[in-house]
Amino acid sequence: MSDIALRYLYETVQAGSMRAAGDRLGIAASSISRQVAQLEQEYGMPLFERGRRTIQLTQAGELAIEHYRSLMANRESLAMRMEELREARTGTVSLGVGEGFLGPFFNQLIDRFHLEHPQVQVLSTVTSSTAIVRSVLADEAHFGLVLYTPAEPNIRVRISVNEPLRVMVAPGHPLADKTRVSLADLVEHPICLGPEEFLIRQLMRTAEARQRLFLEPVIVINSIQAMRDLAASGSVTTVLPEFSARPEIADGRLVAIPFDETIETVTVSLITRIGRQLESAPRRLLTAFESGMARWAATTSR
Description:
The chain is α/β, with parallel strands linked by helices and about 300 residues long. It has three domains: about 5-85, Winged helix-like DNA-binding domain superfamily/Winged helix DNA-binding domain (Arc Repressor Mutant, subunit A, Orthogonal Bundle); about 90-160 and about 265-300, D-Maltodextrin-Binding Protein, domain 2, CATH 3.40.190; about 165-265, D-Maltodextrin-Binding Protein, domain 2 (3-Layer(aba) Sandwich). It is built from eleven helices and ten strands. Helix 5 links the parallel strand 1 and strand 2.
């Protein structure tokens, strides 16, 4: 079924004759006649009542006109939706994020994006860094925030920020007044840490082996929020990057103390899949995160 032939049929009905339709379109009436004849041959039924002085559609002709109008309406609707998508007025953004990122930095970026693009749906999945990398590679997430730099050839690191680890204690804890804390200090106090597969725990294990001091956590838990809450209760210490506990530090529930020895920093990386072209809403939110992390990096480096 030719769109051109359907248009000629439609214009003939609107103009009242093939000659008038030809004048309107700037083509010969014979061209319109041939296109309409091809349509009738394709459908196997006449589209006009023959022998009348004015254009009179058959039932088949009415169906063809109805189809053409529907086709044009759908095309206009598609064009409008494409324009809305291009201007990021609608659409969906999917991203993966670790639990430790849930705080002012993440929340403010998402809130500002929502205010600017209220019809765009943001799907945030909170999971492990390994799972985030998998979802980005599988195009299940447009981009992700992970707590290391992936050694994956198909992952592009858009921007990264190095964050030092801090000892987190409640204000009333015996270590709270120290300007720096050693591993030897931590050995003397109950500590809550993540499981062995957590990057932070692995970095601590490296430092422990180097100093031949080994921490035995009284609580092992795979929740950053729980680690913050337990440390804030005053019964245990914990070790986290400062960004993971900014609200608790800001309101005085936790004190963040630097280590007095070299502990490897964690690297916060914003990642996408190499070769994936992000458009509209995903691209705009990704740009917002890149700008936010650039400001974060400038603050951290001071």
